[in-house]
Structures are given as structure tokens and as C-alpha cells.
């Protein structure tokens, strides 16, 4: 094995079909990448429909692979391995990605590496900034929210996390309650920029309790009640009412994440880097607040480019490269997993089912 690896990555865990080719030596270089969204397919339903997503992934994955191979000027035989998201996620989409990767690996005689989607996010600071281990990661996305101590590509310790809704899920539900488009995060952020964050006194859940765990279900309910009170009083929502509701909601979310980040840093005094990744990390108000927390604590703050915050295949390729260098290989028995916690030694935060812990 050469010191430089060329990895094809595939990602299909939710509603983005993605492929990327990464060259990893002393640093990582993205040779080509593409992300095909499904926003128009799900727009009429107010959220992602798993069956529609799975079918779209099956239709687009091979086209995405052809696109990145053409853009990079490489052939499949030039790859050292194929990395694919094997979970967690919507099971139909994950199966689509795993089956595509298996076919490519078998046909080209290449090693296959199943990657935990959350590990892809958690290792993004190493892809973008070559951050050394260990570091503190806030993984904040549509389906997950947790503080992780990252000591290696398979060595994660959860410091805290959400006990119910993830922030991205709360943003999406807020958008639906206020008649905004999906995905909800960008829509709420745009409206919040035009609103007064102090008009509605939303709660800051669990700040009265010690530790780094979070809860966002009550915040979503508080917004619902505030909306209903305005409608009952006025007979509807004005444009300014909606903007103010969004601003208040976003401010409450930001305050909770900032304070819990302070506590996570205090719980890990030996760590000098706090990184953030996941779709919600694209929110500028949240980024700015976390940057200020890092500055106050005297630690380095790392946030990836916006395109690498949301789901993408470059992060999967990079995580696959680290696993490959560590000697990890999968075979044709690789299974898609709807649930796959990074820290398997800590108790599940969101409950368990037949398929294992959610997070």
C-alpha cells in the first residue's frame, strides 16, 4: 500500500445522493465531488419521505459515480478502495448506497469499507484542517446532536447529547408550523434575520440542570403555543410575527448550544480544539456564538466550509481512508444499519429497539 490513497466515497443516508473522490496523503485533497439533492421530490410532503428517497438514491448513485470519475479524470481501477455510508440513516437509502458500493467493489476487485455516517461528520475537521487527535466535536445535524471526545477514527466518547429532538429536526418542525419551506434550517435562519429575538420569551431547556445533555422538544412546543396565541389574538400571522417567532426560536437554540459547549469544554480541560460539524453547523448565528465560546475558553474553533457541513461523500471517503490505513476491511456481508452509535460503551440516549441504540 502506498502512502497516498485514492478513495471513492458514497453517501445516501437521508435525502442527498453524493459521491466524491479523495486523495489522502499528508493532507486530504478533494479531487471531485457531487451532491444531488431531493428537495423538489419531498417539497409537497413537508419532510423527507423514506420510500421516495430510497428510489431516488437507487436512480442517482451510479450517475454520481460516473460524474466524479469523469471530473477527476480517473478510472475505477485507479481507486485504492470504495467507502460507503453503512448507517445510521433511513434504511432504504443506506441499502441503496451499500448495494451500489458492493457492486462496484466486486466488479473492480477493490476493497470495501463501511463507514459510520456520524464518524464522517466527526472526522471532517481532519479532512479540512488536518486537526490532530484528540479534539472535542459538537455534531449537530438533522437527526443527531452530541458532544464527542474524538481520540481516533474509531475512538469516540460521548460527553453529552440530546435526549429527544435533534436541532435540525426542531428547525424542520418549526418551519412546518410556520408554513416555511423545507429543509427548515435555512428557511428559519432567513426569516430570523428579519425578526426581533426578544419579542417572544422562549425557554432555554435544561440550562437549569448540570451536565451537557440537551432537550429541544419543549422549545418546539413553546413555539407552537406562541404561534397559536398570536393566531387566536389576531386571527393569523403577519410577516413580522413569523420573523419574530423564528428569531426567538433561533436565539433560544443558539443560547442552549453555546452554554452546553462551555460545559463540554470545562469537562475536557485537556482538549484545545472545539470543532463543529453537521447540517446545523451551517447556521451563521450558531457558528458565531460557538466561535465566541471558544475564544472565551482560549481554545481553537474549527468549522468546515458550508458545503462540508451538510451530508456529503468527501467526509465518507476521508473516514474510509482512515479506517483503511488502520487495517479495516469489509466484505460482501456488509449490512446497512439504521442505528449505529459512535460511543457503544455509553448508555443509549434515545432508547433502543431490536436494531440497537439510536444514539
Q: Termini separation (Å)?
A: 35 Å
Biggest sheet, spatial arrangement of strands: 3-2-1-4-5
Most strands sheet: 5 strands, mixed
Question: Helical stretch count?
Answer: 11
The gross shape turns out to be globular
Helix residue percentage: 40-55%
Report the average pLDDT across residues: 93
Low-pLDDT ranges: 351-358
The SSE string, one letter per element, is EEEHHEHEHHEEEHHHHEHEHEE
Which value, in Å, is the CA radius of gyration? 20 Å
> What is the number of E strands?
12
* Secondary-structure content class: alpha/beta
General description of the model:
- The protein is α/β, with parallel strands linked by helices and 359 residues long.
- 42% of the residues lie in helices and 20% in strands.
- It has eleven helices and twelve strands.
- The chain starts with a strand and ends with a strand.
- Mean pLDDT is 93; it is low at 351-358.
